[in-house]
Amino acid sequence: MHDWFSLDELALFLGRDRREIEKLVQRGRIPGRKVQGDWQFQSTEITHWLEQEMREYSGAELQGLEKAQKDSEADIQCPVSSLLHPETVQVPLEARTKRSVLECLIEVAGRTWQIWKPAEILHAVQQREEVMSTGFESGIAIPHTRSPVPDALGESIIAFGRTMSGIPFGAPKRQLSDLFFLVLCRDSKTHLHVLARLGRIIQLPGFLDDLRAADESATAYELICLADKRLGADPL
Questions:
Q1: Is residue 89 classed as helix, strand or coil in its secondary structure?
Q2: Which of 202, 159, 163 has the alpha carbon at shortest distance from 182?
Q3: In this structure, are strands 140-141 and 176-184 parallel, antiparallel, or unpaired?
Q4: For labelling alongside 19, which of 2, 41, 152, 169 has CA 20 to 30 A away?
Q5: Residue bearing the bigger pLDDT, 9 or 219
Q6: Per residue in 190-204, pLDDT tens?
Q7: What confidence score (pLDDT) does residue 53 get?
Q8: Per-residue pLDDT for 132 more than 60?
């Protein structure tokens, strides 16, 4: 991905109309700066801004973002299940604190032997949480690193865990969290592709209730993959 975007490149990256993006920029809604009369956007700033914006995106807006990231490492039709594995799902997840959730999820992800530097990854995920919690009001959290960690990973990977009771994870309104997707990616396109699909999955009616009702890892894995496949059937 470029270090800097022009206005046209940003519109393409976000999968949005150029005129719409230009209006948002002029209103100060998107971080950017003018260089010799032309708008320029720093890629890392855009990724961080987008992570927060995506929380309020509709399914259609998330789908548009997915389409724009179609050349990521993840499978275009089923990006979540292409990076999630049966062994990277743990139900129940034996953790009672925010730190222990992160440690356990990294250990679960490490079952694939793709976690090369677990201490570095833990530190990077904790740094991201210090900026702003990845917890949602729905009791779900999607911890991830602030920037890609290609040197610490063999392959991009997702791990999922459900704790038996909710724990304080920093979600809005102090809501407790019990469903956790750890997203570790080697590049920004894959990172955003996966976050967009997860955003669509958790909006599916009844999905979170079904996931909470899953009493074993295999059932949870099947539910996640089924939801991913269901959305993958929609034309991008």
A1: strand
A2: 159
A3: parallel
A4: 2
A5: 219
A6: 999 999 999 999 999
A7: 87
A8: yes
Phi then psi for residue 122, to 5 deg, are -60, -45
Distance CA 207, CA 129 (A): 25
CA distance 126 to 108: 17
Q: How high is the pLDDT of residue 236?
A: 57
- Mean pLDDT confidence for 151-158: 94
Dihedral in degrees, nearest 10, Cα atoms 184, 185, 191, 196:
-50
Is 31 in contact with 46 (CB distance < 8 Å)?
A: yes
Which residue in the block uniquely carries the two structure tokens 């960690």?
149
Determine the residue type at 108.
V
What is the average pLDDT score of the chain?
A: 92
**Tokens of residue 70, six digits:** 């179609």
Query: 79-232 — its CATH code?
Result: 3.40.930.10
Q: Of 155, 177, 168, whose CA–CA distance to 88 is shortest?
A: 155
Contact 120, 149 (CB under 8 A): yes
Tokens of 140: 């779900």
Cα(220)–Cα(23) distance, integer angstroms: 42
In the predicted structure, residue 61 carries a pLDDT above the cut 60 = yes
Residue 104: name the closest of 94, 112, 113 by CA. 94
Q: What is the pLDDT of residue 232?
A: 87
- Order across the sheet with 4-5: list the strands: 4-5, 38-42, 33-35
Question: What ranges do the domains of the chain cover?
Answer: 4-56, 79-232
Choose among 192, 161, 194: nearest CA to 81: 194
